[in-house]
Design brief:
Structural class: alpha+beta
Strand content: 5-15%
Number of strands: 3
Number of domains: 2
Oligomer: single chain
Shape: elongated
Mean pLDDT: 77
Number of helices: 4
Length: 110
C-alpha cells in the first residue's frame, strides 16, 4: 500500500480515508485512481511489469541450463497474465506476449 508519505495518518482508518480523499492509491500492486466521470481505472504498477520481464529472461537462461522446465515457465506466465487481466493494461499484455513468444517460441522449445 502506498500513499504520499506526508499524508499518511496514524491508524489504518485514517490511512484509508486519506487515500480516498486523494483519489490516488495503490493496493496489491495495482495503481488505482478515480477519474472525472467517477470510473475507477486500474493500472499495474511499473515495478511488477519490470519484474516479470526480468523473470522471463531469467527463466530463458534457466531453461537453457536445464534448471527449469517449459511447463513451469508456462504456469508462471499464465498466473501473471491472470493477475494483469484485471487491470487496464492491453498494450502491456501485448508487449509481454511478444517478449514471451520471442524468448520461448522461436527456438521451438514450446
Amino acid at each position: 500500500m502506498s500513499v504520499l508519505k506526508s499524508k499518511r495518518g496514524e491508524s489504518a482508518m485514517q490511512f484509508i480515508e486519506t487515500a480516498r480523499e486523494l483519489e490516488v492509491y495503490t493496493f496489491d500492486k495495482v495503481f488505482t485512481f478515480d477519474n472525472k466521470r467517477r470510473r475507477s481505472s486500474n493500472f499495474p504498477a511499473r515495478k511488477g511489469i519490470t519484474k516479470m520481464r526480468h523473470k522471463l529472461r531469467t527463466f530463458k537462461r534457466w531453461l537453457d541450463e536445464g534448471k527449469m522446465t517449459i511447463e513451469d515457465i508456462r504456469t508462471s506466465y499464465i498466473s501473471w497474465k491472470g493477475h494483469i487481466k484485471h487491470c487496464n493494461a492491453y498494450r502491456t499484455t501485448v508487449n509481454m506476449d511478444a517478449l514471451h513468444d520471442k524468448l520461448f517460441l522461436e527456438d521451438g522449445t514450446q
